[in-house]
Specification:
6 helices, two-stranded parallel sheet, 186 residues, mainly alpha, 10% strand
């Protein structure tokens, strides 16, 4: 993964046009596909079972030839470790859980590089959208904080930014309106 640096990204966001971002996204998607077809045991097997030769996927238009993945035909068919890079679930990540809208939650590996990208996105939000980055700010995360991913990644991103020098404090109040209001009062 290319190291993302805030100042470089902001400069590009201001100076690059749509075609640049479209081309960059297509290159990144193709690179990710080829990496997954080699390194994720489940995806490698899935492609073989669907008679897909990854070497033939050379352009973004070639993605039309790929079978769609979903919970039924992909996620539920493989062990969690086989959905990970190199079949390794122990490379220092968080095991998150979906909300289970179908009645059965699914588990998802989330690794350090994902959290770094999320932190960068939060920095962009706080610095460019909300103008809170350099100001002393109380951040109250009101997402559910158990295995569900939204609360965890939001709290971790804010904590990492504070640890890196952003002035502020973090409260993880959760979903309870009473707890949120109590956090504000205290």
């Amino acid at each position: 993964m290319t190291k993302l640096i805030y100042s470089d990204l902001i400069k590009k966001l201001k100076n690059k046009d749509f075609d640049f971002w479209q081309s960059s996204a297509e290159k990144r998607v193709l690179k990710l596909f080829h990496s997954a077809s080699k390194r994720a045991p489940a995806y490698k097997d899935f492609l073989q079972k669907n008679n897909i030769d990854p070497a033939k996927i050379k352009t973004i238009n070639d993605f039309a030839n790929l079978p769609l993945t979903d919970k039924k035909n992909y996620i539920s068919q493989y062990d969690l470790k086989d959905l990970c890079w190199d079949g390794n679930l122990t490379k220092g990540g968080i095991i998150a859980q979906s909300s289970g809208t179908t009645g059965v939650p699914h588990f998802w590996p989330r690794f350090a590089e994902n959290d770094k990208e999320t932190m960068l996105l939060h920095q962009i939000f706080f610095q460019n959208l909300y103008a809170t980055y350099g100001k002393e700010t109380l951040f109250i995360v009101c997402f559910h904080l158990s295995a569900h991913i939204a609360g965890i990644i939001t709290a971790n991103a804010i904590k990492d930014l504070i640890d890196g020098g952003m002035p502020g404090s973090l409260v993880t109040a959760g979903l309870s309106k009473e707890d949120i209001l109590n956090s504000l009062n205290k």
